[in-house]
Specification:
single chain, 411 residues, alpha/beta, Aminopeptidase
Length: 411
């Protein structure tokens, strides 16, 4: 098998890491075609974007550009909706399930048609204060899934739907609310959807033999995320890796610093896989495929087989991680507590620039684009600010640009 077929698209953050790695494995590696086809019928799929997979593309078909929404769902169930065992939750320091179904990691990943352009992943802080697509006004973006779920749940229960079918249909409504919200906030059409929960992330890092990270200083967050790590470079496994990407207490910018942690983790993971030929290892590939079927949900229209091998060879610097610009991380809101303030037009301009133009552009450069949005979904227009408006007390902040060319040291 040519080395160029044994490459993977790895982008994202936090608990979404498993979805990104697993989906990437299926999308861009030519390894184990027969094994993929044997498990494809076992994948858990969603109808959130409608449709069924199109016919497989011919081998000489041109590369297809797409943007995927990848989310880490704070759910204590697997992809089939079955509860995770209590001992697994204890290892994860997951705490109780408050039933909120928050999407604590939200990332748009753009894969360009051109082989010379990089893959770009843009993270949205989970507490970004944005208009929710259900018409309820501005709230934290990570509540969109739960709001859509609960509204559909009440309607379905009134019609006598219950049990597993109630949960399945309510989850689809939650996903749709989240997709619609992200499309309106970003101005970008979502072509594909991937979702993951807590436990799969732990199994992923164990399957890969750990991931290299680097800390500027020692941290002790054992009372919250469970992380207690020394300064300097180190390899993280399982629950330790999850704790590393979940910590926000004790970090100066809270959720924004946590996103930087997550991006640095995924950059290190990407670098590791691309530089060591991990995907050529049958044992690890078997483990990855097993994790896919248990913990990953993808949209039914994502024909992974059709785009196998389209991306060719990736180098670490070909995967770039960005974070949308923010105004302030301590916005006081009427009913949602403290949130991250964003400017809607500036976010759309930034996303359009880094996904469709310059992936390393600064916020000041993308601001000139204003609300102009390449790939904007039909009918989406800038949403007027409702509730607390953008603050003039602090300028928009830009987070570090991270790529997978090496291991990045973070706070």
């Amino acid at each position: 098998m040519a080395e160029s077929r044994v490459r993977v698209l790895l982008v994202g953050a936090g608990r979404t890491a498993l979805a990104l790695v697993s989906i990437g494995v299926l999308v861009v590696t030519g390894y184990a075609w027969n094994a993929y086809r044997s498990i494809s019928t076992q994948l858990t799929t969603s109808t959130v974007l409608g449709g069924t997979p199109p016919p497989a593309a011919p081998a000489d078909a041109p590369r297809q550009e797409f943007t995927a929404l990848l989310v880490g769902l704070d759910s204590r169930t697997d992809a089939q909706g079955d509860p995770l065992p209590a001992d697994v939750l204890a290892q994860l320091h997951a705490g109780g399930d408050d039933g909120q179904l928050h999407t604590d990691t939200i990332i748009l990943v753009h894969v360009p048609a051109s082989a010379t352009e990089p893959v770009v992943a843009v993270s949205f802080p989970r507490d970004s204060y944005v208009p929710i697509s259900d018409g309820s006004g501005r709230h934290k973006i990570n509540s969109a899934f739960g709001r859509g779920y609960r509204a559909a749940e009440a309607q379905l229960q009134a019609r006598g739907v219950d049990g597993a079918e109630l949960d399945r249909r309510a989850r689809e409504a939650g996903r749709r609310t989240l997709v619609d919200t992200v499309e309106a906030v970003s101005g970008i059409t979502v072509d594909h959807y991937g979702e993951i929960n807590l436990a799969g992330f732990v199994e992923l890092t164990n399957t890969l033999g750990g991931v290299r990270v680097c800390l500027n200083g020692a941290v002790d967050d054992s009372a919250y995320s469970g992380v207690e790590l020394p300064a300097g470079p180190q390899t993280l496994l399982g629950a330790g890796a999850l704790a590393f990407v979940r910590q926000r207490h004790g970090l100066e910018d809270g959720d924004l610093d946590r996103i930087t942690r997550q991006q640095a983790f995924l950059a290190g993971l990407t670098n590791q896989v691309l530089s060591t030929g991990t995907l050529g290892d049958p044992v690890r590939m078997s483990g990855l495929m097993s994790v896919v079927t248990r913990y990953v949900v993808v949209d039914a229209g994502w024909n992974l087989d059709a785009v196998v091998g389209q991306l060719g060879s990736l180098a670490g610097t070909d995967v770039v991680f960005r974070t949308v610009p923010t105004i302030r991380p301590d916005l006081q809101t009427p009913v949602d507590g403290i949130a991250v303030e964003v400017d809607d037009a500036r976010v759309r301009g930034f996303v359009a620039t880094v996904l469709n133009g310059d992936p390393r552009a600064g916020d000041a450069e993308s601001a000139a684009a204003g609300p102009v949005r390449a790939g904007a979904p039909a009918g989406v227009t800038p949403t007027p600010t409702a509730g607390p408006g953008p603050s003039t007390a602090a300028p928009p902040s830009s987070r570090p640009v991270i790529d997978a060319g090496g291991v990045t040291c973070v706070d």
